[in-house]
Request: fold
Amino acid sequence: MTPAESGTGPGIGAGLGEGLPGGPSPRPRRTAASAGPSYVLTEETPVYVISVAAELSGLHPQTLRQYDRLGLVCPDRTGGGGRRYSARDIQQLREVQRLSQDEGINLAGIKRIIELENQVAALQSRVAELAAAVEGAGAALQAREAAVHASYRRDLVPYQPATQSSALVVWRPRR
Reply:
């Protein structure tokens, strides 16, 4: 048994940023048949058939089919239409079951929670993108400002405003 199958390894994202709840927005689905020979095994790789996914999540296969019909956990599909679950899907199944059993939330509520968490993750990603863009624009502005300062002619003297002096000057008109 691999660490991903046993649930002890890093393959199953147990943190808020790695799976539901709080995971990233829904990933684009790829079928195993369209993956090609360069398919890399990650926590999102669809590898488990429904019977194995049911055993790993501790749920009945019919429950997995029901969750798929309701849109709670949507596994990838093979060319023939068979379901293939990833390690992330297994984590989602466990989370849906926990919310249902331990928290007493109905399936419609769980679906709304998942949608809102995906929306929050998408917004957090957008905020990070915008913060990076602002940081890049600030750096570009500083570089342009430095270039302007470097282009100053050195024979010019920078203007310094006159300061008020406490010296006493006596004025005597010429006669």
Summary: Residues 32 and 78 are 6 Å apart (CA to CA).
